[in-house]
Amino acid sequence: MEVRFFFACHCVICSPFKNLTSPADLSLSQIVPMLDEETNAEPRVNSASIADPYLLLVRDDASIYVAEIDNNLELEELEKEGKALVTTKWLAGCLYIDTSKVFAEEVAAKKGKPKDSVLMFLLSAGGALHVSSPPFSRPLPG
Hints:
Blueprint: E1 3-7, E2 10-14, E3 18-23, E4 30-33, E5 45-51, E6 54-59, E7 64-69, E8 75-77, H1 83-87, E9 90-97, E10 118-124, E11 129-133, E12 138-139
Antiparallel strand pairs: 1-2, 2-3, 3-4, 5-6, 6-7, 7-8, 9-10, 10-11, 11-12
């Protein structure tokens, strides 16, 4: 299975064992292997979701990989702060851009206008739904 996403004038190709990023002309600019450095295992990618500038991968070992495209237009893995994102087994996940302001947070007391935000929805093997916003380490209040 190979899935292609286009964002930030780049193409991200998600294949089972690695992810490739390339400029719009499709010349190769980065290969992101799916190697788990702690166990030396190579989990396969089951599903991918993109909400510019973030990428979420759910892998066959029930772990997740969350990355952000940086100023150099390269994928940089985000730190998973808190043990829930690391220790929980995830069945599915997706990224969502809240353009309709359903989950919007207040910007500042002065403006009082909601801002667009990217949300990550994860379904655990135990059936719990985890919803968080960047840096994706804290769940939304609710």
